[in-house]
Amino acid sequence: MAELKTQPHEGSVEAFLNGVEEDGKREDAFALLKLMEEVTGEAATMWGDSIVGFGSYHYRYASGREGDWFLTGFSPRKRNLTVYIMAGFDEYEALLEKLGKFKTGKSCLYVKRLADVDLDVLRELVRQSAEHVAATNE
Fold first, then answer.
1. How far apart are alpha carbons 100 and 95 in whole angstroms?
2. Is residue 1 part of a domain?
3. Which of 61, 86, 98, 120 is the most buried (most CB within 10 A)?
4. What Å distances lie between residue 33 and 1, 87, 94, 113, CA to CA?
5. Could you give the count of Cα atoms lying within 13 Å of 130 in the half-sphere of its Cβ?
C-alpha cells in the first residue's frame, strides 16, 4: 500500500511561517500557531511542505489502510487560511453559527483572515474537535 506523501518532519515551523509572503496572512498564521499550541498543549510540527500540525493519532480503516495524522492544524494557503478540523463539522453547528465569515470542506475550515471570525469560538471549535479525534482514536 502506498505511503502518504504528507508526513511529519523536523522542519522549522517558524521558518515556514516567516516565509509567508503576505504580511497579514503571516501575522494570522503566527496567531493561529499560538492559539493551537494553547488549545492542544502540543508543540507544532511541520507535516509535508505546508501544514502545521498539532498532536497526532493513529487511524485504521475497515479496508485495512492505516496511518498517523495530526489532531488539528492549519496551512496559510494563498487564498485562505485553512484550519483542519479533523472531526468534520456535523457536531459543531452551534459553534459554526457564531464563528463569523468562513467556508468549509469535509474537514477544512477556510478563513480569509482571522479578523473575520470570533477567536473564542474558533478556539472552542479546535478544542472540541481535537479532543473528539483523540478520544475516538485511542
1. 10
2. no
3. 86
4. 33, 19, 24, 14
5. 25
CB atoms within 10 A of CB 122: 24
Domain count along the chain: 1
As a whole number of Å, the CA-based R_g of the chain is: 15
Nearest to 129 by CA among 82, 71, 76: 71
Tens digit of each residue's pLDDT (9 = 90 or more) over 33-59: 999 999 999 999 999 999 999 999 888
Burial of 107 (0-12, 13-18, 19+ CB in 10 A): middle
The average pLDDT across 66-79 equals 92
What is the predicted pLDDT for the residue at 3?
Answer: 61
Burial 42-53 (b: 16+ CB within 10 A, else e): bebbbbeeebbb
The winner for highest mean pLDDT among 57-61, 65-69, 112-116 is 112-116
CATH number of the domain that residue 89 is part of: 3.90.1150.200
Mean pLDDT, all residues of the chain: 93
Question: Do the domain assignments include residue 2?
Answer: no
Is the whole-model pTM more than 0.85? Answer: yes
**Count of residues making up the chain:** 138
